[in-house]
TrEMBL record, chains A, B, C, D:
Protein name according to UniProt: Inositol 2-dehydrogenase
Domain Gfo/Idh/MocA-like oxidoreductase N-terminal positions: 20-129
Organism, scientific name: Geodermatophilus aquaeductus
Function: Involved in the oxidation of myo-inositol (MI) to 2-keto-myo-inositol (2KMI or 2-inosose).
Sequence similarity: Belongs to the Gfo/Idh/MocA family.
Catalyzed reactions: myo-inositol + NAD(+) = scyllo-inosose + NADH + H(+)
């Protein structure tokens, strides 16, 4: 069954004649960005409702979008017949309930990562969507792994898939943030930062992760007291490939994400600083500097655009064109093993149910 | 008078409630791209009509866009009260008439470069829009110099404007195409390729071009018989800055556009190949290769998106937020001097009217 | 005690008046290179004798160097009063005996790595030289870790030492060879290739290695039957820093050695392909390629020059100005743990004697 | 006649048995560097005499080299039968006399650029050496265009010669110095800085320069009062190729020399900053910086080594293996045209005698 066979879930949704009416649940930093993207840059959709426990923030965001209502109860927004699709950008603990409600109503949902907070509840979402798919042949859940839409990652995957570097064997990742907010713990670094590399590894290699090891090198003095930073995380895939991930969230420098895949017949790297190259006098002599993005919102701006546009396009056709619930579950299962590896200091096997 | 003071030219055009109804005149390669962009990626506008002398092509393009009509006569499309704004992507010889018609009707027009085919007719457009602006305070004409919307060029200009490399003194440009279609002449290379560097120089330096010299190095054997390729074009600005432009349209390689600005306190370069770096075995030994864009449509895809989105946004507010008629005129005046310099082999001063 | 205090071991060796008379033991690939370097590029020394079990090869090498004798017995060359210093480039199993003979005679020796084949015999050399140093205050043994003389590695170490990137925390190394000769085993990859990264880590971080883990990713189809290739080797230092080493000896591509140090206040990378950047049409589209060195002899040509020149200069002053016997011992101890880690599949602690 | 046919000018000069006894005339910055190189890094030669009008400097330099005499009269040094070869590093106005004396005596001479101060006297040197060559078949004069020995330039020339980028058409050069000493004039910039690019162009393209144009862009505020800086110099070759040279000697930044050759089938660039790449926090945000050489002595250290070593090797064989007198003459003729072009502001044809 292909996407075009899917039953028309959104009634009368002729492209160009009627826009997809989207409810955005949670309008913090990410949710507000999604509202602005849907309103200003994405074609074929409009933000019809927003919902947030912080009602003043919801009011403020809605005021920017003509025709957008504030719906205090997120589940009421999901149930609203004037709503065709949902973006879930609420705190992770609400994801399970909200996504399941969308599946119940049979409307498309784009859920920010993590799909849910635990592997078990993520699996429950997978099972619910599977039951829906068994009935209707359609898919409803997309998870917000936006790197898959980044042109560099897409190009890298295509290069691997085309055999351009032969069979991939080793992947090196670096994930560096200038700083993290107070309250971030070493465990949450695994769950919130390493999770992206987990999905990247699965996306690039097309395999599940079988085991995780976490090394804790000497920490930077810039790290918060309780934080082990940097970490070196090793992922072993079911096919025997190895991924090493340096995750370092208190560099004090720029946002930097780099991935190198080493294959049998070549290697390929993305995330090299690029764009404008500047040379000017600095303290301690002349340097030639390239500009680097300030953060993930700048680095992945195009990826977010493409993610939302493709999601809208697919939703209007009644299908999903991005990472699905299973990808969300797999990431949770690996991160759970990662946290265990972090705490026990040993290689930990990933436990995943059969799909 | 700022943009927000401008009178509401498009009646009842509340953002988000009614989309800008755009007519696209000419649906060849560029025009069809613009139609697809407006339909698929730009928010706040829809393609309401297309017009092309090749009616089957117009039919084909319109069929992709629900609600889009084919209007055989482009001037009828301009006159249609159901049209709020116009994109001119027809052959250059029709630009003057079509743009003047838009000014007459007082609706925004985005005109692909060149604004018109000669400096004199471009100046006529400038004068007509000036008269409109004197009456209404608004601007109507934007010229399709999309590089101004490219993030790298924008960043480079900002760097210069902020004093980051001091006073700019010399600019080096390289403009390389793998090949050009049959029929391209050395003069048309000046008019169609060098024109972009002319606008880039004006955009980056904020000055007019005062003189042009064209050198004809030995030509590549890949060039068509009548073509002098490459050329080395020297532009001198009114402020005494010098721009050298290598334009080489039969490289047989990739599309490559590179600009370096050398200033008193530093230098900056854009257009360095970037993104994915691949290393694999090639004939004659291993190479480390970066991927380069296949052509200007790939290289400047984001620039085209931004150009159209900003034009739509500004048009709905009744203003222009991009290169205007004067920029189109200035480019024509410089290219005219460039062709003269090409033919006479000497430094040629640019003749421009007062603004 | 500084170098200039050292007793004049080479009698009457006024720089410029009498050249250091060097015997080179073993004139295979590396030994013949050393002979050519001493003869053609190093000032202040001359090759007075060569020795090799393959006497025809010794004859051939000696014929290129006026005044150079062939001495069949390497220990006779060491004992020869007309010899002032020795380069040991013989197979590793002869190193212990030959280096100890030099220490016995009290003449400087530059020994190609490995110092000896086992940690225990390396320690014996350390102890013998220590006894000599206790008597005379001088040092005699230098080990051929030529990367320390590579300008990039030297610059990287200086950057770290100057605090330019803050406290180093993680080091990423890649060591890639196009191919290896038949007979190379996974163990010998650890002993012969990883050993360089071991010394680099010790050189850059100024710490000993405390533990080793070896992962065996899926092997390339280009690897010989018995070879696990690539390997991912993890080194943990006594100060809690972590070094990951990708060693991949059947890439089929170029020789590539890359090191990145991530510190508290910045990061620094060397080994980026450099020099000439070429863009030309290749199969499958245009690529922009930088040339990469063909092998370690090309990549480290300057390092070998500097290594020999500094050794000659120091030897004439009766001292050592490079990696010493302890460095050779430490590398052997780590490689022994590496081989154990490889075989047992677990993290293995390095056992080192007190210095 | 090949190099090996040349008559043995230096009697009994068996390589390895007797070193070439070199007199260095002029021991300012460059001359002292040459003395140190010959003494410390070049094999097969020794500095037997130095001569300098500043006798204390000569004494100081000679004191560093055992066996080196001070000879007050440079022509006496040339005439000395204990001298086998001469390095001329005296001020340019003495070059003609000293080089002619070497030709008279029939001994090899390495003359720092310029060969002489004017094209006419350079031609006189060419003619004198030609007469010598007609008698003996040997060559005596090498000019100090050390860039020809730089590995990158050598590699670039080889790439062109091998057809790797097809027929070369355009060359872009940038020559940037952080600052120049007081007293440097725009004319001396042409004679002392541009001269290197002139030789590079001739070396890479294998053609003479036919015409020169000099543009004076707006000057940097960092330039001395009388200095036009930067300049843009255009060289046209006899084969119709075009070379543009940005020469900018008050950048306040690093020493930077970059050359790009654009050919029919590809392009190639050298001089890209390389080596260590550092990322660290700077004022105004994070930058990723590569280190750049401090000056020409650092950038071209290896080139100087190779230049001297090859000159010594060739001199001992009685020949020349580097840029000859004609190359010195050609550079002078082009610079003379360059100064004329600078002063008259027009394209100026180069006048050269037949070889």
């Amino acid at each position: 069954m292909t996407a075009t066979d899917a039953p028309p879930l959104v009634p009368a949704a002729e492209p160009g004649t009627a826009d997809l009416r989207v409810a955005v649940l949670g309008v913090g930093l990410m949710g507000a960005d999604h509202v602005a993207r849907l309103h200003r840059r994405v074609s074929g959709a409009r933000v019809a409702a927003v919902s947030d426990a912080a009602t003043d923030r919801a009011d403020q965001v809605a005021a920017e979008v003509p025709g957008c209502r504030v719906v205090p109860d997120p589940l009421a927004a999901v149930a609203d017949p004037e709503i065709d699709a949902v973006v879930v950008a609420s705190p992770g603990r609400f994801h399970e309930e909200q996504v399941l409600a969308c599946i119940d109503r049979g409307i498309p949902v784009l859920c920010e990562k993590p799909l849910t907070l635990e592997a078990a509840s993520s699996l429950a979402v997978v099972r619910a969507e599977d039951a829906y798919a068994a009935r209707t042949g359609g898919r409803l859940v997309q998870v917000g792994f936006m790197r898959r839409f980044d042109p560099e990652y897409a190009q890298l995957r295509e290069l691997i898939a085309s055999g351009g570097i032969g069979e991939p064997l080793v992947v090196h990742c670096a994930h560096r943030n200038p700083a993290v907010p107070p309250g971030v713990t070493t465990e949450s670094v695994v769950n919130d930062s390493v999770v992206h590399e987990v999905d990247v590894a699965r996306f690039l290699l097309g395999e599940e992760i079988a085991a995780v090891t976490v090394l804790r090198p000497r920490s930077t003095r810039h790290a918060a007291e309780e934080l082990s930073d940097p970490l070196l995380v090793l992922l072993e895939t079911t096919g025997g490939r190895v991924v090493d991930v340096e995750v370092f969230v208190s560099t004090g420098l720029a946002y930097e994400v780099r991935t190198e895949v080493v294959g049998e017949d070549g290697s390929a790297m993305i995330g090299i600083p690029q764009g404008l190259v500047r040379q000017s006098a600095g303290p301690g002599g002349a340097v030639r500097g390239t500009t680097v993005p300030a953060g993930f919102r700048e680095r992945f701006a195009t990826a977010y655009d493409l993610e939302l546009q493709r999601w809208v396009d697919a939703a209007r056709r009644g299908t999903v064109d991005g990472p699905g619930a299973w990808d969300g579950y797999a990431a949770q299962a690996v991160c759970a093993a990662g946290v265990e590896a972090l705490l026990c200091g040993r290689r930990t096997e990933v436990r995943m149910e059969q799909r």
